[in-house]
Request: fold
Amino acid sequence: MIDLEGKVALVSGGARGQGACEARLFAELGARVVIGDVLESEGETVAGEIGAAAVSCRLDVTSGEDWEGAIATAVDRFGRLDVLVNNAGIAPDGAFLQDTPEELFMKVVAVNQMGVFLGMKHVFEPMQASGGGSIINISSTAGFRGVNRAIPYAATKWAVRGMTKTAAIEYGPHGIRVNSVHPGVIDTAMVGWERLDERARHAVVGSLPIARIGTATEVARMVAFLASDASAYSTGGEFLVDGGSLAGQPLFRDTELGKR
Ligand SMILES: NC(=O)c1ccc[n+]([C@@H]2O[C@H](COP(=O)([O-])OP(=O)(O)OC[C@H]3O[C@@H](n4cnc5c(N)ncnc54)[C@H](O)[C@@H]3O)[C@@H](O)[C@H]2O)c1
Reply:
């Protein structure tokens, strides 16, 4: 059902983690992919592994010039641009709100928020030229609730939700759909799951309806669905890949009553 044959996609932050997984899956489903990242040699490695259907380029999502270059790479190499995955993001080590420096706050805003804005801004014309397209913005479950020790991260992931809906309204009449994806805790370098002991792991996922960490492949499948025409009537939507974490906490947790 998910077919990306003939589509050309640009994945920001595609050199590792979820972005690399999305690039690989997209190519398997028939797309050609541009991997844009500040990690240039990692990006080249992923593109090399995929083969002729992929190319990598330098893309710092905070730079409008870099966006122009990445889009030119897509159009020069593959002739068009149909899909943008605004996946690049940073999650610096957390600090209490009062201890969070302004510079750090603005750095996270630049990558996670302005990066998404710039991506959506720059792909409009090439997508229109392709007859429409699909933009998938990677937010987080942190875009739905507060997260202690993560004020800039939570702020920017809420912002991605708002920008997604605004862009969906403006771009819809031009045939461009815009949706957000909200992963829960996913096993990538950003989380460092392997560094956590059993107690910490239980604290993170123990009370989820699906009580385990998610995989990059599980997110990539949702993103591929939104990139494809199978999701043709969805725009401005929020798509969770979170093991049910936003469903809520069980009542009477860790008591006899809570067991069933
Ligand atoms: N891992 C999780 O638990 C989780 C949960 C919710 C949301 N997310 C979001 O998913 C997305 C992907 O994260 P991941 O888990 O794969 O982490 P990751 O750290 O493995 O990958 C992030 C990628 O973004 C790239 N990047 C960072 N700054 C950039 C910039 N200025 N320009 C271009 N690329 C840049 C990095 O080089 C890296 O390749 C992020 O937006 C993240 O906030 C992750």
Notes: The chain has a mean pLDDT of 97. Residues 102-129 form the longest helix (28 residues).
